[in-house]
Amino acid sequence: MQLRGQARATGWILPVICLVPLRGWAGSSHRARLAPEGIREGVRSDPGGPDHQQLGPLADWWQGLCYLWDQYLGEQLQGFSEQPGDDDLSWNPRCGHVPLRFCEWQLPHRQIQWRQLNLLAHTSQENALPGIPEGMRGRGLVTTVYSRRLPMVLANIARLRANGCKLPIQVWHDDELPVEECTTLGLWSVECRSLRNLLPRESMRGYQLSLPSIVFSEFEQILFFSSDVFFAGNICDMFDSPEFEEYGYVLWPELWESGMVELGSEEARYYADSTHPEHVFWDLFNVLHNSSNPQHRRATDTQLVLLDKRRHWDVLNLALLFCTDPPEKSRQFYFRGHSYGAMNAEKDSHKWALLALNRPFYLVERGGTVGSLEFVADLPHFSPCGLVIYGPPSYGGQLLAAAIGKEDGLYRGLACFDEARVALTYSAFGEHCVPRTVPHALNAADLDACASKAPAEVAPMVEDLEYLLYHAAESLGTRLSSVFKPRFECS
């Protein structure tokens, strides 16, 4: 890789401590006719922010930092004889998918790494972390996508515009979208932005791309959304919520928390491993685990993230650091590509950057799954079809979004786009409630305490999306079956 920032970086010292407009679509009977002119009306299609040249110094800085870190770690690795191979997929409660001895060996070096970044973020010396590039301003929505996910994004944008959100939207990719698809996005006043030449590493893929898209977007206040999330209403109102105004950082929970392991949840053991007090991150960032604090005991997700970059520039760049592991298994610590390491991909990146820097943030309290009741051998089971994502108290706790059809037969199944399949919700954090991503048995207590009628917004949302997804895929020249993949296939 040609390292543009290498020459300047050598002075550093590591301390040894859119869919084609759907003519005539009217959506559900209660929806107004959606016309392309109505969607584009009042939407700022060209925010006029910094271009790649203006972003260059920040990109150079990050590439230089990764280059120096590789040199430093490579020298240290010469004294460690038990480097893991690419076929080592072991898991342990201390370090997740990083082998225990290799993880413990890395601990002091990773402490040096993140503390060095924190130092460079709060100094005026020559090699300091560059500030927010000139031209960053305003509010906007950001997502990352590849071609197969594009119909989901475009269907979502159609509903978002119909619900009154006129903020600009950016779709970021690593040169994965052809010109024709970017042109289609432009028809809907959506910017198509490439991360090529901006990434700290050319090898960054998959889950490693969400943080760079946030860092390099010109928006000062950003709502990041995953490409498989569908908005129930005008989510742009969240920018004016008192929770965001007070903290400048709003996160949403994953389905699991540490206490669910004792209730028999293997998914909580696996996906919420960093919430357990024995996990390496508590030592790495010198944070004392407090089981009574929901921000400590609950895992977070990146289906939605709302943040103010100017208020939390240092936090955001520390979160980006967690996404910069090289592709080799022998150099992994946090995560790489679509593989987990000590961190469950980028889901925990924002939370741990905030905890490490002792920065207050707001964590939404509610979460859960949406699905239906079915009977297996005459016993009631809850069959999940997706996630439900709620707003904070100021939003009335109403549904903001849902990830429907996320796995074949569970989340990513087309059968989930049916009112009957999304009639109930299962609470993530009710007493004795243990959500799962597979059908699970319900006893009488579960039915009373955990299961309830789905919010009213769910049914019209899936009705609209079922139609929109088919036509979005058709307009892009693809089949919807290619969007919703067989179960267990990697994203």
UniProtKB/TrEMBL annotation:
Keyword Lipoprotein set for record: no
The cross-references to InterPro entries, in alphabetical order and at most eight, read: Alpha_mannosyltransferase, Nucleotide-diphossugar_trans
Among the GO biological process terms of this entry, one is: mannan biosynthetic process
State the family named in the UniProt similarity comment for this chain: Belongs to the MNN1/MNT family.
Q: Please give the PANTHER family that the UniProt record associates with this protein.
A: ALPHA-1,2-MANNOSYLTRANSFERASE MNN2 (PTHR31646:SF1)
Molecular function, one GO term: alpha-1,2-mannosyltransferase activity
One Pfam family matching this protein = Mannosyl_trans3
Keyword Transit peptide among record annotations: no
Q: What is this protein called?
A: Protein xylosyltransferase
Please report the organism this UniProt entry assigns to the protein.
Polarella glacialis
User: Cellular component GO terms, alphabetically?
Assistant: Golgi membrane
* Key words, A-Z: Golgi apparatus, Membrane, Signal, Signal-anchor, Transferase, Transmembrane, Transmembrane helix
